[in-house]
């Protein structure tokens, strides 16, 4: 048992200890870090806030880890957890510069917003809970908020000259006052101009000059200046963490497993009935369904998303039963037996959902959502197998396996050209006559640039609906719409912040 496990806080993470007067230890490393933190905030404003989750964020993540390496040294590579999260976060950031699917970009942004703080707080050594305990998320969130808001004075203490620097102590307030005055003028002058036509006319040339040359730059610098104390305080807390109050380890409790056994038995009986009805549809074929007033396609398309959701509920239920039941007596044996039965039923439910999904795809082809459903069912099956091992070995650390497995699964699906595969399947089915219709607009507008090479296999004179920013604006030939999409790809490639390998490859094709 390691040091973290010996002193786990009972009842959630403890609050950091605080002193009445906060004294910041400032060294040359902090004085170097402060301007670098401002530059990083300026980069973040110029990329993420101005361009969204694109290649600019890839650069920002790389610079972030450069800052951490410069300030924390070899701490970044000291532990296995840190090395894995470093590789995962860099890989997720790289996907933003490789693909152009906005679904993946949005989800990867959310993943980075969660994993980057988890990794950073883990570098401080101020946490107690190990990474594989789910409650560590709450503990690290508390430490993150404390780092962001509890050390705002660190930036000022670093920037403020020492007593021996008398001239600098006189100049710094002058510079801060001038910066504050410029910021207020940048805000107030446009407001006053909108409130009075005469003042607007008098300041028209000045406002035009400022808007043309300084507007974006001033706002970006102002926003970066506001962000810098928070970021610097967080970095400061990573190198000099405020100790948590140690509390005794909570004794493992448990409840009588009889209640869990009753719930598990009821749910297992329901699923046995459901699987019996399912098997009649799966093996009875179209004739059996027609007798029930259902078409085969209608039956096949219904339910697989719900089955994935039901599997999540089952997984949560059986883990709670195994973890919180008192491990003694007949009730405990019943809980384990029923948990094993529920795991087997959940795997059969997933198999049924996958079978029905396959029947539907055979008729209607692939789509992005259907591909992601296949991936989700595969991941749920892996989680259920881990849960089955948990039932067999109750002391097995479920999250210790599932967390890395989930990250690995997400990285794998990011490496699969889903949009290309969907477009190839749909176009192949259309050209072979297997499908009489093709949703070209879906492939053209809803998916990424990876679909363009497959759409070029179609007749360029095909008439398609043309879309603007929000709605249909008319019709046009497919060849014209493809060239418009390639022009959009060239526009993305013209700015390093929005460049992607997918857009670059698309921009090289066409006329």
3D architecture notes:
This protein has helices at 3-6, 28-51, 55-72, 80-98, 102-124, 136-149, 153-159, 166-195, 197-202, 204-213, 215-239, 258-291, 296-301, 304-324, 329-364, 368-392, 398-415, 418-431, 440-446, 452-455, 478-493, 501-507, and strands at 463-467, 472-477. With 511 residues, it is mainly α. The chain starts with a helix and ends with a helix. The model is unreliable at 1-12 (pLDDT under 50).
**Quantity of strands, as a count:** 2
**In percent terms, what proportion of residues is strand?**
under 5%
Terminal CA distance: 65 Å
Name the average pLDDT. 83
Q: Which runs of at least 5 residues are low in confidence (pLDDT < 50)?
A: 1-12
Strand order of the largest sheet: 1-2
Helix vs. strand class:
mainly alpha
Overall shape: it is: flat
* Main beta sheet: 2 strands, antiparallel
Order of helices and strands: HHHHHHHHHHHHHHHHHHHHEEHH
Helix content: over 70%
**How big is the Rg?**
29 Å
- Count of alpha and pi helical runs: 22
Features:
flat; mainly alpha; 511 residues; disordered N terminus
Set out the fold topology.
Layout: H1 3-6, H2 28-51, H3 55-72, H4 80-98, H5 102-124, H6 136-149, H7 153-159, H8 166-195, H9 197-202, H10 204-213, H11 215-239, H12 258-291, H13 296-301, H14 304-324, H15 329-364, H16 368-392, H17 398-415, H18 418-431, H19 440-446, H20 452-455, E1 463-467, E2 472-477, H21 478-493, H22 501-507
Antiparallel strand pairs: 1-2
Helix pairs in contact: 2-3, 2-11, 3-4, 4-5, 4-17, 5-6, 6-11, 7-11, 12-15, 14-15, 14-16, 15-16, 16-17, 21-22
């Amino acid at each position: 048992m390691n040091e973290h496990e010996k002193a786990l806080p009972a009842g959630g993470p403890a609050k950091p200890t605080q002193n009445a007067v906060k004294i910041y230890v400032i060294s040359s490393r902090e004085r170097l870090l402060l301007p670098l933190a401002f530059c990083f905030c300026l980069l973040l404003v110029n990329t993420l806030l101005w361009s969204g989750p694109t290649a600019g964020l890839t650069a920002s993540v790389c610079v972030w880890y450069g800052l951490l390496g410069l300030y924390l040294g070899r701490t970044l590579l000291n532990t296995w957890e840190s090395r894995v999260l470093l590789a995962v976060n860099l890989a997720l950031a790289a996907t933003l510069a490789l693909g152009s699917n906005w679904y993946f970009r949005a989800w990867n942004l959310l993943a980075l917003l969660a994993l980057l703080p988890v990794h950073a707080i883990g570098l401080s050594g101020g946490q107690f809970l190990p990474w594989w305990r789910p409650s560590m998320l709450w503990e690290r969130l508390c430490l993150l908020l404390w780092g962001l808001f509890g050390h705002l004075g660190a930036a000022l203490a670093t920037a403020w000259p020492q007593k021996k620097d008398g001239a600098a102590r006189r100049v710094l307030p002058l510079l801060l006052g001038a910066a504050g005055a410029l910021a207020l003028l940048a805000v107030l002058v446009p407001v006053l101009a909108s409130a009075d036509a005469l003042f607007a006319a008098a300041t028209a040339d000045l406002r035009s000059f400022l808007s043309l040359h300084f507007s974006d730059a001033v706002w970006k610098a102002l926003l970066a200046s506001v962000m810098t104390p928070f970021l610097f305080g967080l970095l400061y807390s990573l190198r000099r963490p405020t100790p948590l109050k140690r509390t005794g380890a909570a004794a493992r409790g448990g409840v009588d497993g009889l209640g869990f056994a009753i719930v598990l038995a009821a749910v297992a009986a329901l699923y046995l009935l459901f699987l019996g009805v399912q098997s009649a549809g799966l093996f009875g074929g179209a004739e059996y369904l027609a007798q029930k007033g259902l078409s085969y396609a209608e039956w096949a398309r219904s339910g697989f998303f719900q089955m994935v959701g039901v599997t999540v509920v089952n997984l949560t239920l059986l883990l709670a039963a195994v973890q919180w039941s008192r491990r003694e007596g007949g009730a405990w044996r019943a809980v384990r037996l029923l948990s094993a039965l529920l795991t087997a039923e959940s795997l059969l439910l997933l198999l049924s959902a996958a079978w029905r999904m396959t029947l539907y795809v055979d008729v209607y082809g692939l789509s992005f959502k259907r591909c992601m459903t296949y991936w989700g069912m595969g991941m749920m099956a892996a989680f259920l197998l881990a849960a089955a091992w948990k039932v067999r070995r109750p002391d097995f650390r479920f999250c210790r396996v599932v967390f890395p497995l989930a990250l690995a699964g997400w990285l794998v699906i990011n490496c699969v050209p889903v949009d290309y595969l969907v477009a190839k399947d749909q176009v192949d089915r259309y050209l072979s006559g297997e499908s009489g219709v093709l949703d070209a607009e879906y492939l053209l507008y809803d998916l990424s640039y990876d679909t363009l090479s497959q759409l070029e296999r179609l007749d360029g004179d095909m008439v398609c609906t043309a879309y603007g920013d929000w709605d249909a604006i008319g019709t046009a030939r497919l060849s014209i719409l493809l060239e418009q999409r390639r022009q959009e790809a060239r526009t993305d490639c013209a700015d390093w912040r929005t460049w992607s390998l997918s857009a670059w490859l698309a921009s090289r094709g066409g006329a």
